[in-house]
Structure formats: C-alpha cells, structure tokens
Amino acid sequence: MSKPLTFYKLLCTCLIVAAFYSCSGRGDHASGALFGEENNQQSTYAKPGFYVEESEGRLWVFKNDSEALSQFKDVGEPAKFSTIVGGGPGGMTIRSDTKETIIGYLAAKEGFFTEIIDNRLWILEEDSESLAQLKSFGEPAKNSTFVGKGPMRITVRTDSKHTFIKYLAAKKGFWTEIKEDRLWILEKGSDSYKQIMEAGDIAKNVTLVGKGPMNISIRSDDKATVLKWAAMKDGFNTYVREGRIWVFKPGSEHEAEFLEVGEPAKSVTKVGAGPMRATVRAAELDVMHRYLRSLKM
C-alpha cells in the first residue's frame, strides 16, 4: 500500500503547485528556471544551441550535434571533459567537453548573440547593425572591452557599455531598457509596464542610484519590483514576501508546501545577506548556501 499512497500524495502535490502557478499571475514569484519541470532538463536548463542533462547531481552541457554529445549519448561521457564545481545554475557542478563550451552555455541569453572568438566573449544584440558588422568584417566599427567580466572571468567584447549593461540586466519576465543613462526595470504585463509602453513614462517611480549592473542607476515603479528582479538567479525559484526573499530548488516539496500553506515548518534565515541587503530565507541550508554563493558569481 505504501507505493500507491506515495504516488497519490505526489500527484496531489504536483496538482496543487501547478494550479497555483497557472493562476498566480505575476504575484510575488520570480523564477530562474521553468517551474514544475525539474525532471525535464531540456526545459528547466535549456538554452538555444545546447543539449543539457542532469546526472548524479551534475549538469552535463554540450553543443548540439557535436562529436562530444555523440560520445556522451553512446558511452556516458566524452573522452575528455572539464568540470566546474558549483559553477552551474542552482550551484550545480557543471561538466562538458571543454571549458569553452561551459562558458558558451553560461553566457547564452535570449535576445543576444554570444560567441567566443580568440578567447574573448562577444556579446551583441540580435539583429543589430553591430552584429552584422561582426559577421562581415570580424568586429563592429565601435567596440568596448571589459576584462574578466564574463562567465568564469572571461574578457567580454561588445559594441558599447550600454549593450553589456542590457545583457547583464536581462531577466525572464522583466522589461529592461536604458533611457538617459538610467536602467528602467518593470515587470512585463504590469500596469506600470503598460503605462510606459503607451506614454513613455509612469506616474510614480523610484530611483536607486548606482544599484544596477556596472553601477548604473535604476528606475522602476517601486523598490519591490527591483528586489524581485535582483533576487532572480538561474536554477532557483524565488519569492519576495514582506521584504524577504524566499528561495527554493525548483519543484521541491518545500516549495510546494510554501505555496500551499505558507512558511515551511522549518527554515533557515540569513539577515541582510541578499540583494539590496534583503533577508534571505530557505527551507534547506544547502539551497541557502548555493544561492548566496551564486550572488557572488
């Protein structure tokens, strides 16, 4: 009887979580992974151009159609591989055939062209004139270099500082734009987002001086929006409630409990350890440590 009961208990938990997620709107949730799909690695950790698979707590990543991927599928791992302990989403250990492949995976982001050329990571906006120049002439007419500022401290090259800031600021579910040397951050679908799309500004806004990437000032509708944006990290699901950041492994039982009944029976707290000096709470100490470590990367 234990196996059927376990199955039905798990099924009920999944249905509760799925119902909450589908009905919650923007709420207080910001996800660094596709929620509720932790067993579908091609959804949870997927990035264009890469194959990913979680095995024994490690995340393997390969370029699609690569020889290393064929070896991995045939024999379980490529002949040679690189390992970065704790360097993947959610603080996972990440493995691939080369360090360059790992950097390429970590750098990939929707809306941006990212490619390693001559040991430098190029970052340009998709469909931009600068990208066309790079493909035609080897580099754009104007470019900037940021030494050691990319994943795993790789040097970044791009057409401007603003492009790099927009790349660093881009997060799923948020609209980001630089206007008059200020980084605007709003939740997509919010009233403030609709207002700025229609009128070019919003009635009420706050400015956080020097709090954005590369010390750019941030403008938004309120500090809570900025905190939700800042709390997001790949491989974690985060919620901001009463000014505190709750962090969970995507799809965990602790997250389901949190969504169903509120605060978990047991939790750990780190006062002022999060972005904007927010207090961070988690149901698992390991998740807390991984999350705090990811903030420094």
Could you provide a short overview of the structure?
By secondary structure, the chain is an alpha+beta fold. It is 34% helix and 25% strand.
Q: Which H/E pattern describes the elements?
A: HEHEEHEEHEEHEEHEEHEEHEEHEEH
Classification by helices and strands = alpha+beta
Helix count, DSSP H or I runs of 4 or more residues:
10
Described by the principal axes of the CA atoms, the overall outline is globular
Strand order of the largest sheet: 1-14-15-17-16
Instruction: Tell me the number of strands.
Output: 17
For the biggest sheet, the summary is: 5 strands, mixed
Measure the end-to-end span.
Answer: 47 Å
Instruction: Using the CA coordinates, give the radius of gyration.
Output: 20 Å
Mean pLDDT: 88
Integer tally of domains: 4
Strand content: 25-35%
Helical content stands at 25-40%
Provide the low-confidence segments as ranges.
1-26, 32-41
